[in-house]
Write the C-alpha cells for this entry.
Amino acid sequence: MTHAAYVAAAWAIGVVGPAAYAVVVLLRGRRLSRSVPASRRRWLTTGDEGDDGRAGGR
Amino acid sequence: MTDCDAKLTGGGGLAVRLRGAVCLRGAFPALTGVNLNVDEGEAVLLRGPNGAGKSTLLRLCAGLAALRAGEGEVLGYDLRTESRSVRLEVGLVAHHMMLYEDLTVVENLEFWARLSGASANQAHVALRSLGVEERLHEVKLRKLSAGQRKRVSVAAVAMRRPRLWLLDEPHAGLDASGREALNEMINLARRSGATVLIASHEGASAEAVATRTIHLAGGAVWPSAPSTPDPWPATQPTATPSTADPSTAAQPKATPSTAARRRWRSRRLSARP
Amino acid sequence: MRSLLGLPARPASKAAEAPGHTGSRSTKLLGLALLAGVVALCLFAFVFSPPDSRTGPEGTPIGQFDAVRIMYVHVPSAVWGYVGFGICALGSAVYLLKRSAWWDRLAHAGAEIGVVFCGISILTGMIWGRPVWGTWWDWGDVRLVTTLMLSLVYLGYLAVRSLAAAPAARESRSAVLGIVGVVLIPIVNRSVDWWEDRTLHQKSTLEELRIEDLTLFTLVLGFLVGGLAFAWLLIHRFRVAWLDAEAENSEMLAAIEERRSEASTLNGTVAQEVAGTATEAEGTGTGAEGAGTGAEGAGTGATGATGREGTGATGRERQMEASRR
Amino acid sequence: MRSVLLIAAKDLRIELRSRVFLYQVIPFAITTLVLLGFALDADRAALRNFSSGLYWVTVMLAALLTAQRSVSLERSSGAADAIRLSGVAAAKIFAGKSLALFVYLIVLELLMVLGIVVLYDATLTDAGLAAATAVVATLGIAGAGTLYGVLAAGSGVGETLLPVLLLPVLAPVLISATRAFGDALGASSVNGWAWFGLVGLCSLLYMLLGGLSYGPILEADS
C-alpha cells in the first residue's frame, strides 16, 4: 500500500477523535446524571423507546 | 404559588409590586425571592447588611437587572416585558457615578438631558437646587471632590423628573449641607407625587425622609418595624397595609399573628417522617 | 467501539428506575448501527475499493493511489462539521426569536460537534495534502482555510459558553456569535476562493476523481456512517447540555436556600432592631425544612417569612422552570 | 438620528480630552509598522509588496484597542447603565458608538497611509480605490468591534476574549481589503474594485447583524 503511514494516521484521527469525544460526553453525562433526578431527564420518563433526543420538552 | 399571586394583575396605586423576585448577579443569587409592595408616594428606606441585596433590588426596580424568577411590576409596567417603559420613568443614583470623568459638569448633564429628552434648562435648575456652585460648572468631573460628584449625579437624575426615585447610598460622601439639599429634593419630588426607594446605611439622614423602613437580609425582605410617621404627607395615603388589599398579607409588614405561626409550626413538625 | 460505549452495562438494581447515563433505547440502536457501519466502512475502504491509479495523457501516474482512502474520512467529517455549525446557527436564531432553552442546548451541541468534526477534517486534510500535493498546508486551498477560520469562530463560541455568567446572559451572547459565524461561511469561502485564482482543491472531488463505482459507493457509505456518528453524538451531547443546565439550576436553588438560611442566622442583629419581631428569628430560621408543607403553606393568616418559607422550594422551582422556557 | 450623533459626539469629545487615542493608539500603530519592517528584515522590495497586508493587520490590531477603549469608557463609569436608562433604542446606541469608532479609525488610517509611504516605500497609484476601500472596510470593522466589544466586556474577561472573537470574524475584511489595497498601491494586478465589493458586502452584514443583535447583548449585560 502506498502512503500507508499517512492513511493510518488519518484513519486513526478520524476514528479515535470522535471515539474519545464520545467517551468524554458519556462520562460527563453519567457524572451529571447523578446530580439530576430522573424526573428531570425526560428521555427516561417518556419511556425507553422512540426518543429522538428531544429531551425535556422545549 | 399562593392566592395572593392572583391579585398581581390588578394594578392601581402601587409603584412597586414584587412577588418572589429572584435576581442573579453573574451566577450569584443576589435576590432570593423578594415580596414587596410600595404605594405610590411612599418613601421607603431599605436597610440591611452589606450584600443583603439592596443595590440589586434597586437595579431590578429600575428595569436594569433581569428577573430570573418571580414577578414584578413597577409603575404599572411589567418588569419582564415592559422594562423599557420602566426605565424611562425611574431615576437611579447608583454607587458608580454614571457620569463621564473627562467631561465637564455641564457637558455631562446636557448630554444626559438631551439623550433622555429633557431640556438643558432643567439641568441647570437641578444643579442649582443641589447647591453645585456656578464656578464648578465648567470643571471636568475628574477634578471634583467625591461630595460634589455625588451632587452632580443626583442632579443628573433629578432633571429627568422621575416618577420613581431609586437612591443607592445617596447620602454617602455628602456633607451636612449636601444631605440637607438632597433631602429637600426628595421631599420636593414626593410632594409632586413621586415615590422614593432609598438604600442606606446612614440611618439618620435617610430616616428623615422615609415613611417606613424595610429590612433586607440574604436577598429577601425581612419583617420590618411599623412605619415611622410621615413627615411629608404625600398625595397618596401613606398607611401602607390597607385592609382592603389582601395581597399585602404576604408582605412582611408586622408581626405574624401567633395563630398563623403556631399553625405553620405544627405543619412543619407533622411533615417530618 | 463508540457503540460499545453507548451500551453500558446497566446497574442491575436500579436499572429501570434511573439509569445514570444519557442513553436510551433509540440511541443504543443508533450506536449498534454505527458500529456495524464503521466495520462495513473499514471493509470497503481498505479491502473492496481500489486505490486511485489513473494515468495522465503521457502515461505518467496522476492518481492519489492509496491516499484516496483518507478521503472516506476527510470528506464526510467536513460535511458533517458544517452541518453542526448550521445546526448551531439555526438553534441560535430560534433561541433569539423564541427564547427557548431547547434550541439553545441544541445550538451548543451542534457547535461543539461541529468543531470536533471540522478539526478532524482539517487534520486529515493536511495529512492527505502532504503526499498528494506535497504540502501540509496550502493557502490556495479554499476549503481548508475556510474551515479553519470557521472552526476558530466556533471555538470563540465555545469559549463564551464556558464562562461563568447568568444563564440568560450567556445564552444571548452565544446565540449572537452562533449566527454571525454561519453568515460568514459564504463570505469567507468567496474571499479565500478569489485569493488565489487557481485553487488546488478540485471544484468537485467526485468529478475530478472520475470515480469507479466502488469508490463512489465507499464515499457515500462514509457519509452515512459519519451521519450516524453525528446523530449519536448530537443526541448525547444535547442531553449532557440539558443535564448541565438542570444541575446548574439545582445548584442555583441550593445557593438561594443557603443564602436565605444564612440570612436568618444573620438576622440576630437585624431582629434586635426590629423590636416586635425579634422572637421570630429562630422560628423561621429552619426554613429549608418547611418545604414539605406544600403550596398551601401561605394561607390567609401566614405572613411574610412564614409563607415564603413554606412554598419556597416547590414554588420557586416551578417559577425558575417557567422562566427558563 | 439625533441621539446617534449625540453619542458619537460625546465619545469623540471624551477622546479629545483624554488623549488616549493620540498618545496610545497612534504610537501603537507606528510601533507595529516599524516592528513589522524589522521582522521582514527591512527588505525594500518585500515591504513594498506586502505593504497592503501589513497595513491592514496593523489596522485590525489598533481596532482591537479602540474597541476595547470604547467599551471601557462606558463601563468604568457606569454610564452603560445610564444609557440604557435613557431609553434610547439599542440600534441607535450601536450606530452612535460605531460612528465614533469609525472616525478614530479613519484618522488613524490616514496617518498610517503616510506611514507606509514613508516607511515601506509604497506608492498610492489609485487614491480613489484606496479611500473607498478604507471607508467601507472601516465601517465594517467599527461595527463588528462595537458589537463584539460589548459582548466580550459583558462576560468579564474582555481583554483576552475580544481578540479571540473579533479577529476570526474580521478575517474576510482583512483578506479583501488587503487585495483591494494591493491594487490601489500598484503592488498587485488583481481587480481591486471586485474586492472592494466584497469588503462592502462584509461591512453591510456586520452593520446589519450588529444593529439587530446589539439589543439582546446589551440586555444580557445586567
Remarks:
- The interface with chain B takes residues 2-3, 6-7, 10, 13-14, 17-18, 73, 77-79, 81-88, 156, 219, 222 of chain D (CB under 8 Å).
- The radius of gyration of chain D is 17 Å.
- Residues 176 and 195 of chain D are 5 Å apart (CA to CA).
